[in-house]
Amino acid sequence: MNIKGFQFSAVEAAIKKPGRLDLALIFSETPAAVAAVYTTNKVKAAPVLLDMERTRNGSCQAIVVNSGNANACTGPRGMDDARETTRLVAEGLGIPDEAVLVSSTGVIGVPLPMERIRTGIRPLVDGLSGGTLDEVARAIMTTDTFPKLESRKGSAGGKEYTIAGIAKGAGMIMPNMATMLAFIVTDAAVEPAWLRTVFAAGIERSFNAITVDGDTSTNDTAVIMANGAAGNPPLTGSADGAADFVRLLDEVLLALAKLIVRDGEGATKFVEITVRGARSDADAKRAAMAVANSCLVKTAFFGQDANWGRIFAAVGYSGADVEPERTELFFDDVLMVKNGVFAGGDAEARGTEILKQKEFKVVVDLHLGGGAATVYTSDLSYDYVKINADYRT
Amino acid sequence: MNIKGFQFSAVEAAIKKPGRLDLALIFSETPAAVAAVYTTNKVKAAPVLLDMERTRNGSCQAIVVNSGNANACTGPRGMDDARETTRLVAEGLGIPDEAVLVSSTGVIGVPLPMERIRTGIRPLVDGLSGGTLDEVARAIMTTDTFPKLESRKGSAGGKEYTIAGIAKGAGMIMPNMATMLAFIVTDAAVEPAWLRTVFAAGIERSFNAITVDGDTSTNDTAVIMANGAAGNPPLTGSADGAADFVRLLDEVLLALAKLIVRDGEGATKFVEITVRGARSDADAKRAAMAVANSCLVKTAFFGQDANWGRIFAAVGYSGADVEPERTELFFDDVLMVKNGVFAGGDAEARGTEILKQKEFKVVVDLHLGGGAATVYTSDLSYDYVKINADYRT
Question: CA distances (Å), B347 to each of A91, B182, B313, B352, in order?
């Protein structure tokens, strides 16, 4: 895939086990508009803290990413290591340090193996001529079972552009935690302030609408770079093609987010949970997330059990406004609960059939207002416990 | 055990499988001061809604409890059934309907089998002469593997009294949800308003400080009845022996709460999590609960993996104030993390040894203030998934 003015590279730096790419570089030949969303965790990894400073001015030119080590809970040394990594990349590329972002994912609490990273950066920069975004997608994987790459083509002001994104998901490298990373590149020209607005909104409907286990990592990062190489007049809210750009960007983000859930640790089901008729969108999301994160609901999904009572209870404790006697619940198009009580008839049998599918929808209608939200989750299986408990044994 | 002026009874009403007690009665020969704490779930079962009305005036005389059916999400019919159950008991005992409370635990969304309950109430009332609190403790079990009963003796104003309590725990009957029920009886005389205060405070430190899976049931109920048969001057904040009563009550509540965690579904570990040095007690509890409910932390406990990074991350997303570079973390007395980074040395090896124990403590010191809280939790095991996914297969 060609995204004009971007170059990619990935190498084996021996941070992970032999035979796996683990150091990657995304480079824009010219300074690009940048927007980013970071973990809300108050314990933030060093690369997150550094990138938060550097994306504030709305421009950057390169992102270096390593997997195998999260550089989290590593104190002042971790900050030094993150800075040095970006400095080495900046020197190789001949650009200012401040134009380079860094992301890390993997083991927590262990210093970065800087000798390996130092050694890896030269071939990484040299490899830019021949690398691909797909290689970068593979280099950022941890326990992901497949690389995650999505793209769309659009046009604005008579110029064709591409939006391409990669992500890694809720995998863990023992003894550590899940980290979600996503990097989006586009050759469209986009006005930086507007890019920030539409990117944050898209993240809310995609990466912030998925959950595998409800744990927010120290390293979660989503970055978009727009370098303008397509030559369109910079996109803003009022520009021709702006709505189209937002739609295509949202599609890329949502597709990547769904891939993360599908690749969730031990996942055997992909479940879309919609809450509608809520007092507000925020209430709807609160209720949907409570359902999506309930261990009882998720084990019932794994057990293929049409256990609507657990869903009902999760909505009840979510904090969202709910009047049980008005609430409806559907599995796909089967009405399971009406006015807060079991719908009866063949609902149990039909609901159980739906839960045997690999994918299904849960819809809760609160009948209180116009608020709605959709989130995506997986089930909670033996393999989830196995992956997260038994990795070292 | 004899708690003056209280009688107990339990029978098989065929709500559960044959051979198991499932209908129980606690009766005070005279009206007793009553205080209660109910689920915060907005989806409340019929018996909870009825009891909330009836405990408001601070007095009651009997509690009828069934297991095997939660009478939750059962609509208007559920309320009628709850009322009829209390009316039949009241008639049998010759007391007003309003003096009878009712609790239910078990299957959700299925109407109570009222014919069986109607048939059971006569022998239930007749059995009061020969029953015991231990039988009641057994009759309220669902997937609990042992009955939970605790008692303490004290004295006030020269009169001996007993506080005895029973509880059932985070077990589920498929296709349904966990419910926590606790009933405390004492023959001490206690002023109703003060009883309410000290009971609510005790619950906060006990039943509200435990978690197995973070799901709040529709039926959670804790009730205390104090009938004054011991003959002491009624206890209030300023009375002789008040502090002692609070201490003994707290001991009973905490002991019962810990039994529930020990009997948690699939639990192989009992973990005490303390957060101290927080900006406030509320912040400390928020952080401790986030750790206790984290699937990643709980699977690491199951895997006996000294994965302090997951604990650190859970504190970080809890919403509590935290400055990572000041935070310390201990497993029992082993310092794992100092100033936000791994303590090094033999901490990893020693921490792993501690996690091999059946019971251990996790202490997080935020070094920000004087707030502290302790909560109790279990691990997340294959058996948790099995119990909650595979019950019907």
Answer: 38, 40, 19, 8
pTM: 0.84
CA distance B185 to B208: 19
Contact criterion met (CB below 8 Å) for A24 and A206 = no
Prior bond to A47 cis, omega within 30? no
Contact B342 A110 (CB under 8 A): yes
Nearest of B215, B203, B242, B277 to residue B38 by alpha carbon: B203
pLDDT in tens, B82-92: 999 999 999 99
State how far residue A327 is from chain B, nearest Cα, in angstroms.
10
d(CA B38, CA B98): 18
* Cβ B379 vs Cβ A385: under 8 Å: no
Distance (Å) from the C-alpha of residue A108 to the closest C-alpha of chain B? 6
Given an 8 Å threshold on Cβ–Cβ distance, is A299 in contact with B389? yes
Taking an 8 Å cut-off on Cβ atoms, the answer to whether B391 and A305 are in contact is: yes
User: Hey, where are the domains in chain A?
Assistant: 6-262, 270-389
Q: Can you say whether the dihedral through the CA atoms of A381, A383, A386, A392 is positive or negative? A: negative
Residue B157 CB-density burial (10 A; 0-12 exposed, 13-18 middle, 19+ buried):
middle
- What per-residue confidence (pLDDT) applies to B29? 97
B195-252 pLDDT, tens digit per residue, is 999 999 999 888 888 877 666 778 889 999 999 999 999 999 988 899 999 999 999 9
CB B162 within 8 A of CB B3: yes
What class is the B270-389 domain? alpha beta
Q: Can you tell me the distance from the alpha carbon of B181 to that of B65, in angstroms, rounded to the nearest whole number?
A: 10
| Residues B152 and B119 sit within 8 Å (Cβ to Cβ) | no
CATH superfamily of B6-262: L-amino peptidase D-ALA esterase/amidase (3.60.70.12)
Task: Determine the Cα–Cα distance for residues B257 and A314; give it in Å rounded to an integer.
Answer: 22
